[in-house]
Design brief:
The model has no long low-confidence stretch (mean pLDDT about 85). This protein has helices at about 10-20, 30-50, 60-70. By secondary structure, the protein is mainly α. The longest helix is centred in the middle third of the chain and has 23 residues, at about 30-50. Helix 1 (about 10-20) runs antiparallel to helix 2 (about 30-50). The chain has a domain at about 10-50. The radius of gyration is 20 Å and the shape is elongated.
């Protein structure tokens, strides 16, 4: 499978497969657990999508941030 076809949020895909399985996970207890897991996963996913990583555009704060990390340039 090409790397570009892979879902970076594989846990959500796995959860969706369980939620939509035609024969497994249909009992009341399984549905309850899947609902709890979905709620926590959706909360995590939303926070994860809000994260902004480093950029290649220098800012005035870069030197101060690097200094707090103890990285020598």
């Amino acid at each position: 499978m090409p790397k570009s076809d892979r879902n970076p949020l594989v846990h959500g895909s796995n959860l969706e497969q369980k939620e939509n399985h035609r024969t497994k996970y249909r009992d009341v207890e399984s549905k309850k657990y899947l609902t709890e897991i979905r709620t926590e996963y959706d909360t995590w996913r939303s926070a994860n999508l809000e994260l902004v990583g480093p950029t290649s555009t220098p800012t005035d704060q870069d030197d101060a941030i690097i200094a707090t990390l103890g990285i020598n340039g």
